[in-house]
């Protein structure tokens, strides 16, 4: 490669976007507990669960693949 | 480019006036924020990667440093575009579980074959592209033919994809068609021009996660609603008692026994052998991702890793189509027959998304579709830039220039390629039948190309003249058969073995015959012409290439082990869904 570098692995970027999305969707899901959307199976609160999952997965990826100084 | 688009693409020819009145998804601010964040992220990745793509090897081949997992996910993602997702969900609604063949027998055997048999030669030869391999093996004539065809078709397909996606956004979201075309095209142009294949691969991996996380809730919630697979099947049969939508091979014993009008021999020999092997082993868009692997073991493993995910894709594509048959309170109709208040087959996936996903989740699902479209376009453009710069510009127009010059050409090629694609999109807007012709164009070439590459890799007796004339004969024969059926429809009974065969069946049989013709001509011409000396074939052909052994590796580290498990899983799935 052109430089002697440590390119940030793609998994870090995946983690960042999942973390951001997870927080947004989780917040929407928590709001949905009190104002459920007009969707089928809204009583299962999928946004809250899925948002929590994305947040956890994103946080794990960000932690494991964060850029580190050598 | 995707061979499997011929059916779904045909479903997307929608009159725009009708499209405008069918908007049924309303995005709220959270959904819009999710979409905007995606655009910002892909652009940010492009700007970040620019500093690492100053050499040609980096810009066009991502430095050949990709791990097996990155190359594998990118390999599957490059093929998993938004049109593929929506189109095959639509095809499932129309034809049932038969659509799964394009994901299983139409992909898995070919991907495993690429990994175990062909990747060593692509990788050891250090070819930068499939036309590049043809040049090393057969000489310039074969490379020129392949490069020109590939470059032309790639850019046309990128434009068609762009138009079809913009139309989908108009139908589903009510977005202005010009806005969709320009915003997404310019974003792709920027991040690929900046970061080359690195950018394209990074964003394909990102897209892979978004596609799965955006679409996975539909089958999960759908199966909860129907009470599992058996409940789903029961509901489908209750709603549509006249058809068999849930068996994979049973209805294929006759042409008339299934709604696709295909016999199992067409699926196995046409789709499963020639078309799928032709696509997965020679289409440079997907092969480029594997050539970018960091070593030969990673290059072999990447398509094998990809095969596991490809096998799982029906869960997020086929199942939503079946769920649509089971749970939607109305029946979908062909695009050409949509009336007020009706929806077309194409809309089954967004309809299921709207059924189960509220604010936030909806934005994620739509972002997944947009990401799929954009990464598909990025794949086409990055492959086009490589073939144009290395196989056409460097080979014939300007030889011996500096590496920096070719990188600059590559970046400009991306911009020009995107602009040409936009032009094609507007052309298709005016003349929708172009889509059929471009799909046919792709089908003329892919089966003979597979024959040419395969024979070249396996048999050192095949000569440069044999390779070129076989490729040409196969392509010309395919064009001739297509034109013959167009001019005289009764010829369908000979080419597709049944007068009741549908277009898809015709494509499959035509691919089979053109492949056979390519092979026969290649062999015959090779027998009467002089082969290259064996020392010139080192690294290119079986028998002249020292392939690195894997005997010293533990079993679980050998690609053949994981290929075997993938093959076994594939067979089990055929039995389960027979």
Quick summary:
The complex is a heterodimer of chains A (70) and B (578). Chain A is built from 2 helices and no strands. With 70 residues, chain A is an all-alpha fold.
What does this structure look like?
With 70 residues, chain A is an all-alpha fold. In chain A, 64% of the residues lie in helices and 0% in strands. Chain A contains two helices and no strands. In chain A, helix 1 runs antiparallel to helix 2. The longest helix of chain A is centred in the first third of the chain and has 25 residues, at 10-34. Chain A is rod-shaped and about 45 Å long. Chain A starts with 9 loop residues before the first helix and ends in a 5-residue tail after the last helix. The model of chain A has no long low-confidence stretch (mean pLDDT 89). Chain B has one domain (3-576): Sodium/glucose cotransporter (Up-down Bundle). The longest helix of chain B is centred in the middle third of the chain and has 39 residues, at 177-215. The two termini of chain B are 30 Å apart. Chains A and B meet through helix 1 and helix 2 of A and helix 3, helix 10, helix 11 and helix 17 of B.
